[in-house]
Amino acid sequence: MPKLSGRTRGRPTVRNVFSRCPHCDWIARVASRKSITATYDELFYECRNFDCGHRWKAALSFVHTLAPSATPKPGLDLPVYTRPAGPPRPANDPGGPEVPRPANDDVTRASATG
């Protein structure tokens, strides 16, 4: 989640959102942002390496809601994440890979000494 700081006309601005330059692998920062819709922004990056100078546009888009908003915007219908279908499996379900017994297992020690 990007750190939001400052305000421009009542809207937060993106600050301290970094990425890596695909050419020189230096840190690149968001120089500006353009909101296209409520769920899609264009981010304009610039490489901090003076010798490289690469600039590019990236997309930032909404995928799904993890926790619903306490102040939902009327008319904005966003998809909500749902777990994949299927019955829940207990954490100790033996259906997974075979797990070796611990070296300090009491049953193993008792059978080895008795």
Care to give the gist of this entry?
With 114 residues, this protein is mostly beta strands. The chain has one helix spanning 106-113, and strands at residues 4-8, 11-14, 18-20, 27-37, 40-47, 55-61. The chain has 1 helix and 6 strands.
General description of the model:
With 114 residues, the protein is mostly beta strands. It has a domain at 1-65. Helix content is 7%, strand content 33%. The longest helix has 8 residues, at 106-113. The chain starts with a strand and ends with a helix. Residues 1-7 have low confidence and may be disordered.
Topology of this protein?
Blueprint: E1 4-8, E2 11-14, E3 18-20, E4 27-37, E5 40-47, E6 55-61, H1 106-113
Antiparallel strand pairs: 1-2, 3-4, 4-5, 5-6
Strand order of the largest sheet: 3-4-5-6
Between the first and last Cα atoms, what is the distance in angstroms?
Answer: 58 Å
Provide the helix percentage. Answer: under 10%
Strand content bin: 25-35%
* Spatial shape: flat
DSSP, total strands? 6
Mean pLDDT: 80
Radius of gyration: 25 Å
Describe the main β-sheet briefly.
4 strands, antiparallel
Spell out the helices and strands N to C.
EEEEEEH
Number of helices: 1
Provide the low-confidence segments as ranges: 1-7
Class derived from helix and strand content: mainly beta
Fill in the keyword field for this structure.
two-stranded antiparallel ribbon, mainly beta, 4-stranded antiparallel beta sheet, 114 residues
